[in-house]
Amino acid sequence: MSYNDKSNEDLVLKNFLDSLPHNAAVLDGEGLIICVNNRWEDFARQNGLNPGECGPGVSYLQVLEKATEKDYEDIEEVKRAISGIQAVISGDKEEYSQEYPCHSPEEKRWFKMGITLFRQGALVLHENITERKKAELEAERQKELLNQTIDGIPDIIGIQRSDLTIKQYNQAGLNKLNKELEDVKGKKCFELIGKEERCENCATVQAKKSKKLEKVEKQIPELNGYFVCISNPIKDDEGNIKFIVEQLRDISKRKENEEELKKRKERLETLFSSSTSAIATLDENNRIRNINDKFKKVFGYKLEEIRGKDLDEVLERGRSGRVDRSLTEQVLTGHKVRKQGTRYDRDGNPRKFIIKGLPIEVLGSVEGIYAIFEDITGLNQVQEELEKKNRELERSEKRFQRMLSVIPDMVSIHDTNMNIVYSNWNGFARVPEDKQKLDTKCYRTYRDRDDICPDCKAKEVLETGEPLLKEVQLSEGGWYDLRVLPIKYEKGEAKYFVEWVRDITDEKKKREKIEDQKERLASIIESTNVGTWEWNVQTGEVNFNEKWAEMIGYTLEELEPITIETWRKFTHPEDLNKSQEKLTKHFRGEKEQYHIEYRMRHKEGHWIWVLDRGRVVTWTNDGRPEWMYGTHLDITERKNRQEKIEYMSYHDELTDLYNRNYLKEKMKDMDVIPELPISIIMADINGLKLINDTYGHEVGDELLIKTAEILRDSTREKDFIARWSGDEFVILLPETDIDEVWKIRNRIEEGCSDVNIDGVPLTLGIGEATKTKFEEDIFDKLHESEDNMHKDKLTRSRSGKNKLVKNLLNTLSAKSDETREHAMRMTAYAHNLGEEVNLPSRQLNNLSLLASLHDIGKVTISEDILKKPGKLSNEEWEIIKQHPERGYIIASASEEFVPIAQEILYHHEKWDGTGYPEGLEGESIPFLSRIITIVDAYDVMTTGRPYQGPMSKDEALKEIIDCAGSQFDPALAKQYVKMMENSP
User: How far apart are the C-alpha atoms of 737 and 8, rounded to whole Å?
Assistant: First the structure.
């Protein structure tokens, strides 16, 4: 290349780089800079570099390496950049990109470096992404601010996906549910409160249907409150729902207030309507709104006549000036008024009333007046009534005195000068009758003293104004309970006090007995397997009994010195935090008792389960927990039983595989993008019903267990196998494509090929399906694998059942005299007779099949009975007679043999109706069964049995003729004999 050509090429490269919108440089295969654009040079100057220091001819790798030698805060970023450039230049990568900060004193900046193969080296671009980064950071800040704001809201805020599973809850929601965010993600909201389905009037379901905000008020007993539920769907630009924001506001207090207001209103309305006073409700202009029945009766008005009229004008009857209207203004400012006055009824009759005005207040504002009129026209009558009441009061007081007199304890009332105002003279301080005088000093009457008692408790009560309760011991050994209660006036000053003295000597003895019982109880506890503990929460001091130490394999002496840390040392680390949470709730008063189950390490190294119960029994003066007592109970055996029950709830008892319920939940959990592709295999044991009916369920169970073993051996540790139904199995294969599925399927089929249990082969119908896209429904894939399994069974079932039937025939031959030669002769005889009577070809085929399988039911009968040389017992004969029905069941289990199942059932029926199993007679016996009856009898007679020698051909044919019309169809018997006589 000439010099001019080289110059032109450099110029073209330079112009190309200058046309790029970012800082750009071209490197050769060694990392040397070949060419840079103007933006590259400008950037170098702006950052204090001479363009020559990072321009053509300079190793860009060395420029970057020098940066790592400086006190540069992002050295690791530079090292990653060097590795990326080297990887592209060396050809290990086609391109490499990296975002990095490059802050200047004036501002924070970010750049994106991109490196691409270019010629024999690389093209390096540095794009300024500061604005995008700032936007991202601002978005993160706004997101965090939003989260903090939501967490600060006292309402429950939840975000649900379009499938109504939980994406997020704010802190108030998590606190209300007493759960962590990880516990709620992916679940339905109703599952979190222990419900099996959504609320009937779910706002979120309504919002999903309507695609608009929905609001519902409802009671949620599981959350202990009444809530307003607001669900707002968040839609994308196309109107599809992305999320639904659900807000639950606790309106329990409001509902309580509403209910209370309702009750108050009902009470007021009841009082209003049933009051013995005449009442009118007025608006703020003194105009009548309503009147009660008493008002109508007293004043003679109906509501329709006076509603909306000024009350004073109605009741003054034109006598202007007799009413003090300023009273109305006082009531409207919130005051209560009371006065006496005269008002007139509808007929103009004057009556005297006590008139009361009460403000009607709503939320602190006066919106009307209650006007109450109490008729005092008959005041003398009222005074007489009052005197009557006073007399009744006197009688009541006497009754009160008589009632107190029967109280066994001493009750007395004294004034502040210690004078006895009242006493029942009973009980502990019984006084002789000559001293039972009121208005005498209590200390003279009760103690024979001339001055007040030095230990007088009443004096203390009068000084403090507070009641006193105290147990006092007498010098002579008795005890009494003293209670002194002040009787106060409105200003709070005590004018009298009541003394109640009760003999508690016997009670004290009972208490001492109880304390003694407590000590014995403690001894009993010590003798049981219950560990006890005492803990001073403030000091850490603890006391354990010997049983507590024995639970974990130690003696108390081995554990010394014992503190609260001793307990922490042996408690499982995962359970310590749970225990602390329970203790905190108990200390706060949220839980009446501390109650928890956790693990403790035994001396031998294993973990035991402990039930720990306790309660704070004393508190410090400032309200902190002090001494706490409790017990430990070893519940390891119970927990093991629980774990076994939980294990069985997710496992099949026979095969020890997972069960259907577990796999359903696992499919939901694994239906996530990281597990794709997810494959499913469904397998079904061919002919299991036939096997169960023929060989018994024990053989069928062995086949199920063997199938489970093969599936385990053929799959991987990460796969999940479940017994889906009686004879079906499902395998869940995460991160497995269709090629890997076929490898696993081949291993399964190879494992089945050599299985033979009691002569029964194992074949499976197998189907598979693979989910490769997240939007595909995993349960649709399960159904697809099931469909493919059924298709596979169609191709395998016939050969599998034929193989099984051959095994059955071989088994029958081994167990009895039903040899292969017998079946072949039977087939030949039956076919010839079928042709003789002109049977169509399809019936001839069925007849041949019937000849082979007519005694297949004998395969289920014991060999001892089938080969018994002597006469069968009645019980044995009844078993033999069951073989047609058993053969019918076996044939009915196979689609191929169903056409001859009924003929197998009736092949031992007789023409005269004396056969079995149903006693059919004549032509009601299937035609093919009648043929088999004849040829079977002929072959048995001519070949013999262990208990009977063979007949000649002529003897056998004569027997058939003799039994025609009784055992055999007479027409068929005649044709068969004729056919056999003409045969060689």
Answer: 55
Nearest CA to 748 among 735, 767, 726? Answer: 767
Instruction: Using alpha carbons, list the distances in angstroms from residue 539 to 534, 564, 565, 578, 887.
Output: 12, 9, 12, 22, 84
The 3 state secondary structure assigned to 158-188 is EEEECCCCEEEECHHHHHHHCCCHHHHCCCC
3-state SS class at 828: helix
Q: Cis omega (within 30 of 0) on the bond before 917?
A: yes
Nearest to 418 by CA among 397, 394, 400, 444: 444
Q: Report the C-alpha gap between 630 and 613 in whole angstroms.
A: 5
> H-helix or E-strand containing 900?
none
Residue range 404-417: average pLDDT? Answer: 76
d(CA 104, CA 107): 5
Strands 720-723 and 658-659: parallel
Point out which residues pair with 630 in neighbouring strands: 533, 614
Measured CA to CA in angstroms, residue 193 lies from 177, 202, 229, 364 at distances of 7, 14, 16, 40
Q: Which residues contact 680 (CB under 8 A, 6 or more apart)?
A: 730, 731, 732, 733, 768, 769, 770, 771, 778, 781, 782, 785
Q: What is the mean pLDDT of the chain?
A: 82
How far, in whole angstroms, is CA 501 from its chain's centroid?
Answer: 59
CB atoms within 10 A of CB 937: 18
How many C-beta atoms lie closer than 10 Å to residue 366's C-beta? Answer: 15
Residue pair 17/26 in contact (Cβ under 8 Å)? The answer is yes
Kindly report, residue by residue over 902-937, the tens digit of the pLDDT: 999 999 999 999 999 999 999 999 999 999 999 999
Token couple for 207: 């919002």
Q: What is the pLDDT of residue 2?
A: 47
Note the pLDDT tens digit of each residue in 241-250: 888 888 888 8
Which residue is listed with tokens 């009994």?
545
| Full 3-state SS string of 918-954 | CCCCHHHCCHHHHHHHHHHHHHHHHHCECCECCCCHH
- Read off the DSSP letter of residue 617: -
39 vs 127: CA distance, rounded Å:
11
> Which comes out higher in pLDDT, residue 114 or 870?
114
**36 vs 435: which has the higher pLDDT:** 36
